[in-house]
Amino acid sequence: MRKDFLLNHQQTLLGPLWILFQPVLTLLTYVLVFNKLVGISTGNIPPVLFYLIGIALWTFFSESFIAISFTFTHYESIFQKVYFPRLIVPLSLVSANIIRLLLQLLLLFILILVYWSIYNTPITISWWLLLLPFAIAVIGINGLSAGLLFAVLTAQYRDLINIVNIGIRLMMFITPVIYPVIIVPDNLRLLMELNPLSSLFELSRFCIFNEGTFTTGQLLYSVSITLLLFVGSMMLFHKRVDKLMDVV
């Protein structure tokens, strides 16, 4: 985990500061484009805080998913030289992204205090905040599970790498990263609800800001899909891992 974290920021101008600098740049872009130009409402949540939690969670999921998807293509030389449980690599990749997420959440809570002290933005702390680690864990398991599934597929079919990169960009638009679910038209709401990440993102915002749209049924659906994907991807990964070493 520590090695992956350091390697990602080796020989860079800002080093680990990119963990905060990158989401801040993305945040400013989202506020300018989606809030100011397009006029997407973020409800009672200040746009900066609304987008930052969405960016942090989406980066955690997407970076974990993409990194794990390329496990065999990026680490094939290590796999061929040294034997160790292959699952260690995907788990270490998720762990490295957890560190990034925690630092970005720290920035979020600092900004919440800034908004409270300067703009008198109310801070609502409730027992829902205790469910934030649960939401993050399920999002992380989603990234791990989907990544393991595509790790097996991309090892056999290299052209799927392009599909992974395109697909993850498209998926962001059916996940409430840049908009709240409540503004989605009824005829498109089903598409959002089929995405297991939707209710988890809304739950995360509700835990912090006491504002989000989800039901208990939607959360149970998200957890059920996540568990099925996790079990299925783990079984497939363990079944195919040794055979894939002859392919890569």
Automatic annotation (TrEMBL):
Its main location: membrane. PROSITE patterns: ABC_TM2. InterPro entries: ABC2_TM, ABC2_TM_bact-type. The keyword Cell inner membrane applies. The chain crosses the membrane at residues 12-33, 48-75, 87-119, 125-153, 160-182, 219-237. One of its GO terms (cellular component) is plasma membrane. It is a multi-pass membrane protein. It is found in: Cell inner membrane; Cell membrane. Pfam families: ABC2_membrane (PF01061). It comes from the Bacteria. GO terms for biological process: lipopolysaccharide transport. The keyword Ligase does not apply. Keywords: Cell inner membrane, Cell membrane, Membrane, Transmembrane, Transmembrane helix, Transport. GO terms for molecular function: ABC-type transporter activity. Residues 14-240 form the ABC transmembrane type-2 domain. Belongs to the ABC-2 integral membrane protein family. This is Transport permease protein.
